[in-house]
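step=predict obj=Trace amine-associated receptor 13c-like n=326
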Amino acid sequence: MESVDQLCFPKLNASCRKPTLHWTNAVLMNIVLSSVSLITAVLNLLVIISVSHFRQLYTPTNILLLSLAVSDFLVGFLLMPGEIYLRTGCWFLGDNVCSLYNHVSFIITSASVGDMVLISIDRYVAICDPLHYPTRVTVTKAKLCVFLCWLCSVFYSSVILHDDPRHPDEHNSCYGECVLVVSYLAGVADLLFTFIVPISVIVVLYLRVFVVAVSQARARRSHVTAVTLQLSVTLTTKKSELKAARTLGVLIVVFLMCFCPYYSVSLAADESLSSSLASFAVYLFYFNSCLNPVIYALFYPWFRRAVKLIVTLQILQPGSCEANIL
């Protein structure tokens, strides 16, 4: 017979058991995961403030990065604490909050994948069709694409989880549990639309960008004759676009490294293997949200300058939004 102290709800016989972790391991895990969650939220909040405040950063590419930073911030602010709550304790917030948490996690995940696809398309047009990039990709169009991305994510979540709000506790084996089980068709659709298709699009576009970037680099090295001022400006512009492409390429490679295990575990046929690696895969996917602003700090001087102005509270001064940080 189970001890009452081991139950999430001691007065209910159908209550779930509390996780059997040694207190030192539980404390250490909570400290590490909570610290990563806080760092993720703070770093992405700095990205959001930077792009939103400084007018020089109002570019189509940065609008897409802003959307990605919003989803990453929500991962650190909502999903990581929720995951810590799920993995290291009992669920005391009720079935309706559990259903809401599952919907929000689907929306944020889908939006992150959509942002990565939009970033790939942006770099593809910038590198492969630079002459038409200023007219084809504008701030207004970027904002519209971001809006549609989040709107589609909300619609997608409502379709995939359409049964969950009506029967939020249908798959719970005991009280104090928060699980999500989707149908076979919904699982196939999720695999197709949030993994296979986006990853294929991202890889194909960036392979094309890589080929064009290499050919342009070779062309610059072989360019030994005198050039006009207009051509020099064009080459300089292409060089800056290539640098941005490399930076965002690193961003996407890191995303794929963190994202692929998330779905690879779900595809594993061995149930014990899936359960043993599920937590690691989820944490790795969420940890990508912490790595993105670190990549910005390493490769974008404007981000470092913006953070300095934010931390020193210089953004509170009149006219600080017009500061030159590029």
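step=describe
The longest helix spans residues 229-267.
step=end
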